[in-house]
């Protein structure tokens, strides 16, 4: 059964993460901001909204949101919580570590990615992205938080 609570929390996390990029990151460093036809960046118009948290908050929110959305939309039960959390932890940590070893990763990215929307920026993500061990910690904490939220928001028998 689809879990609306988990979906709402996941979407909220993605929205907060988007706000970090819109307010606290330069537009030319955020792919979906600088490639859209509208000027969606508020960077520099206000003092940093998220302060020092803005550096690692997206890593926390991304992994937590995708865990919550995966379970919430799929309707999978408690037995899948840990595998889903581990899957998204590995994916997000892999992308973060890919920035540390960007030269090797960039060589492995197929050329045909350049012709596909969203994938066209994959090589740049690794080459120009910045590795942060704090992001790895944030990813781990996001996974742990998402697991707790899954437990807290799960639908009990007889509940709708």
Task: Report what the structure shows.
The protein is mainly alpha-helical and 160 residues long. The protein has helices at residues 4-24, 31-34, 57-74, 81-100, 102-108, 122-128, 133-153. The chain is globular and about 50 Å long.
C-alpha-based Rg, rounded: 17 Å
Number of E-type strands: 0
Distance between the termini: 9 Å
Shape: globular
Low-confidence stretches: none
Structural class: mainly alpha
Q: Provide a count of the helices.
A: 7
**Average pLDDT over all residues:** 90
Assess the beta-strand content as a share of residues.
under 5%
For the sheet with most strands, the description reads: none
Residue share in helix? 55-70%
TL;DR?
The chain contains seven helices and no strands. The protein has 160 residues and is an all-alpha fold. The longest helix has 21 residues, at 4-24.
Produce the secondary structure layout:
Layout: H1 4-24, H2 31-34, H3 57-74, H4 81-100, H5 102-108, H6 122-128, H7 133-153
Helix pairs in contact: 1-3, 3-4, 3-7, 4-6, 4-7, 5-6
Salient structural properties:
single chain; 160 residues; mainly alpha; globular
């Amino acid at each position: 059964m689809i879990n609306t609570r988990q979906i709402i929390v996941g979407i909220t996390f993605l929205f907060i993460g988007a706000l970090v990029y819109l307010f606290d990151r330069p537009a030319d460093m955020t792919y979906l901001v600088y490639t859209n036809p509208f000027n969606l960046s508020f960077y520099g118009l206000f003092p940093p909204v998220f302060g020092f948290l803005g550096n690692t908050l997206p890593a926390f929110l991304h992994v937590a949101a995708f865990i919550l959305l995966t379970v919430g939309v799929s309707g999978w039960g408690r037995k899948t919580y840990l595998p889903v959390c581990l899957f998204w932890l590995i994916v997000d940590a892999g992308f973060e570590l890919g920035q540390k070893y960007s030269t090797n990763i960039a060589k492995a990215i197929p050329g045909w990615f350049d012709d596909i929307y969203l994938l066209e920026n994959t090589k740049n993500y690794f080459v120009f992205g910045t590795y942060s061990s704090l992001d790895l910690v944030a990813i781990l904490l996001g996974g742990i938080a998402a697991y707790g939220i899954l437990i807290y928001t799960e639908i009990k028998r007889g509940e709708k």
